[in-house]
Amino acid sequence: MLQPRTCLRHTLPLRTLPYAVRRTYAEAIDHYPPFPLTVPPPIEEANPYDTTTRPEDTPEPPFALRTYKPRTPGIRHLKRPINDHLHRGRAFLPLTFARKGQHIGGRNNSGKITVRHRGGGAKRRIRIVDFYRNAPGRHTVDRIEYDPGRSAHIALLTNNATQEKSYIVAAQGMRAGETVESFRAGIPEKLIESLGGSTDAGMVAAKTAWRGNCLPLHMIPTGTLVYNVGLKRGGKAQL
Q1: pLDDT per residue over 84-116, tens digit each?
Q2: pTM of the predicted model, to two decimals?
Q3: Which uninterrupted H or E stretch holds 81?
Q4: Could you tell me which of 76, 78, 81, 85 has the C-alpha nearest to residue 65?
Q5: Model confidence over 10-58: pLDDT tens digits?
Q6: What are phi and psi of 80, to 5 degrees?
């Protein structure tokens, strides 16, 4: 707690006081008791298929737009979505490659300009996105990134078992720290054991139909919001 910055009032005149005690100021005082030096009990490892850790249970902030002070006529009515959760650094370079030979600057096969006013621009790197998601096991979302090659955001995942990195298309509301999993290879044995050996569709859906998970069509309950839908059995996501 900070006390007011006032001089101490003394009964003796200031001329008779030594210089070291003429003027003193407030200091920070800790009014909290010292923390006990006891070791906290160990935290039990949570069940990986516990329904209390569902991403849907975390409340999402209301949708808001960012406005700007009209210093110029162009930004007077400018409104943009607030994406403070996006990563501000560079992309994960091992999962990118340079975009070369794809923008030819409006030239044909003989090198002549057939479409004017094209070419140049900033250098871009194409992100390698995993549209198959065949790797089983749980993955942790490291961060959400902006991708200049698509209108959706992408998420950088880390495989908890192999520590491999991969990019996927981020679901709406996905944030860093969440856990996602792909069930294209089937239902894990640990999940069946946590359900007491039962494979009831409703009980399995309560453990698997979470935001960001990849499920085959027969495991998706009716009324679930989906994205990145594949058109062929075992194929990649296309819609």
Answers
A1: 999 999 999 999 999 887 777 889 989 899 999
A2: 0.71
A3: strand 79-81
A4: 81
A5: 444 545 545 444 444 444 444 344 444 454 555 555 566 665 456 555 5
A6: -130, 150
* C-beta of residue 187 within 8 angstroms of C-beta of residue 204: yes
- Nearest Cα neighbor of 134 from 12, 234, 33, 221 is 234
Residue 181's DSSP bridge partners are 138
**Residue 99, pLDDT score:** 87
Phi-psi region of 190 (alpha: psi -120 to 50; beta: other; left: phi over 0): alpha
Q: Which sign, positive or negative, has the C-alpha torsion 89, 94, 96, 102? A: positive
Q: Quick one: which of 196, 145, 198, 136 has its CA closest to 174?
A: 145
Backbone angles phi and psi of 81, in degrees to 5: -70, 150
In angstroms, the Cα distances linking 115 to 34, 109, 110, 185, 216 are: 74, 13, 13, 48, 45
Length of the chain: 239
The kind and range of the H/E element at 154 are: strand 154-159
Q: Which two tokens mark 209? A: 């139909």
Give whole-number Cα distances, 40 to 32, 45, 46, 47, 230, in Å: 20, 15, 17, 21, 48
- 182 and 136 in contact (C-beta within 8 Å)? yes
Instruction: Please give the structure tokens belonging to residue 148.
Output: 């200049």
